[in-house]
Design brief:
By secondary structure, this protein is of the alpha/beta class. The chain is built from 16 helices and 15 strands.
Length: about 450
């Protein structure tokens, strides 16, 4: 076996190679260290490698690593299934064709893998792993499951370029989580910086993406088919943020840190604080535990949430130190909307906008191709939204360009006058947030200026 094996995620795997080991254990979301610790001496002797399976894309890297080491001749799949990855693996081994399998892995090799491991794998409860291993007779298994090691071409997104940008502070707003998500993916691929991640693979990263969700209901979410999860998946995710439960094999959840942090239910404390003073700036909750998380490689990605009230509306802001924008952000956003709704309903406030600040907003290399396909297929949904700072009506009156400013409900706000497009532009630029809106207004102001100079009629498109 090549000394560089395993090729993929080697720093995320427990290797226990000895003369008799040939079994691989997949632990889902249950910590591999906890599973390894509970293995009996006999079980450890049989076990070659242990790793977790966080998403269905990880199945590709299981296939790749196993083809590189044909000595692995049996799989045991167990552990907590928080993302449906274990269920997906079971479906894959049952022969269901999957569109997430890398195109660089030939179909005949995928079929070979399924043909062998559908007969040489078991899905068991974590508590049954030792008993299961005791019953496996290694001498009855082939020394190698395939003829020779195979190293497939790496799965890399092609033609990814980084364009110049402001580097930090990208504000993206939309009505629904799914709409904003597509814009986020688009921005990261256009402007993201490519660098290594702590998981041994590349990532594309933007610093401080500020996403704003205007109107999505976590109990009746808008879930178009292109999202990687459905309503049932979302309902299974909500307990991780809405309860203080810590599931088997999981070190913590956001819910446990928010609702039972040193014994304090911080979400209830937010409600209590705003009930006492709805203008308070202290309605804040933290997940970061200094004693536990300084130097902790698995410290929480979500670090704080803060609720603020203006008039009768409750706004929620969340800060992530690190955010997987392809695989985690949409569900994170719905979980936060659920918390926001809980607080607002407890206080009888309207639900305002959700603001999520993702400091390291990244997409992992394993998801490059799928994310790019998503952007290409759904480009029309990346169009601009209504500018939240208002709309403008342009007229020519008394040899002047007159621009009237209205809010979204059509209420008149103010008026600007000038003799040139540049003069008007300098007066209205702070009342614009949307780039497409600004380009459109620039075009219309230029038309109005030409009409004024040529003494011809001007009609706003």
């Amino acid at each position: 076996m090549d000394q560089t094996w395993p090729k993929y995620y080697s720093n995320q795997l427990i290797i226990n190679e000895n003369e008799n080991s040939s079994i691989s254990i997949v632990t889902g979301w249950t910590k591999k260290e906890d599973v390894f610790k509970e293995l009996s001496p006999t079980s450890k002797e049989k076990t070659l490698i242990i790793g977790q399976l966080y998403s269905k894309e990880g199945i590709n890297f299981i296939i790749r690593n196993i083809f590189l080491n044909p000595k692995i001749n049996f799989l045991i799949i167990s552990g907590k299934d928080l993302s449906g990855s274990v269920k997906e693996f079971k479906s894959f081994l049952a022969g269901d064709k999957k569109d997430y399998i890398h195109e660089e892995i030939p179909e005949e090799k995928v079929n070979e893998f399924i043909s062998y491991f559908s007969k040489h794998s078991l899905f068991v409860e974590t508590s049954e792993i030792n008993n299961t291993l005791d019953k496996i007779d290694l001498s009855s298994l082939p020394k190698t499951w395939t003829n020779e090691p195979l190293d497939f071409e790496d799965h890399l997104a092609k033609g990814v370029n980084t364009f110049p940008s402001e580097k930090v502070g990208f504000r993206i707003e939309g009505e629904k989580v799914s709409d904003v998500w597509l814009k986020v993916l688009d921005r990261i691929f256009k402007f993201g910086f490519e660098k290594l991640s702590s998981y041994g693979e590349k990532q594309r990263e933007l610093i401080n993406i500020i996403t704003v969700i205007n109107n999505d209901d976590p109990d009746n979410p808008y879930l178009p088919p292109y999202l990687y999860f459905n309503k049932e998946d979302l309902e299974n995710y909500y307990p991780q943020v809405m309860t203080s439960c810590v599931f088997e094999g999981v070190e913590y959840t956001y819910g446990s840190r928010l609702r039972k942090h040193d014994g304090i239910d911080q979400i209830q404390e937010i409600i209590n604080e705003l009930k006492k003073e709805n203008y308070s700036r202290r309605a804040i909750a933290f997940t970061w535990n200094v004693k536990k998380d300084c130097g902790n490689a698995k410290a929480p990605c979500l670090d704080l949430v803060q609720a603020l009230v203006q008039k009768d509306t409750l706004y929620l802001t969340a800060y992530f130190r690190s955010n997987d924008m392809f695989r985690a952000w949409p569900q994170n956003a719905y979980g936060l909307l659920k918390i926001q709704k809980e607080i607002a309903e407890a206080l009888n406030f309207k639900i305002g906008k959700l603001i999520v600040v993702s400091c390291s907003a990244h997409i992992y290399e394993r998801d490059f191709l799928e994310a790019q396909k998503m952007i290409e297929k759904h480009k029309p949904q990346l169009e601009c939204q209504i500018d939240p700072r208002g709309n403008f009506v342009i007229e020519i009156n008394n040899n002047e360009i007159v621009v009237k400013h209205f809010d979204a409900e059509g209420t008149f706000l103010q008026e600007f006058k000038g003799s040139s497009a540049e003069e008007i532009r300098n007066k209205i630029n702070t009342f614009l947030t949307d780039i497409t809106h600004a380009i459109y207004l620039g075009t219309e102001l230029h038309k109005a200026e030409l009409a004024l100079k040529n003494k011809t009629p001007y009609i706003q498109d």
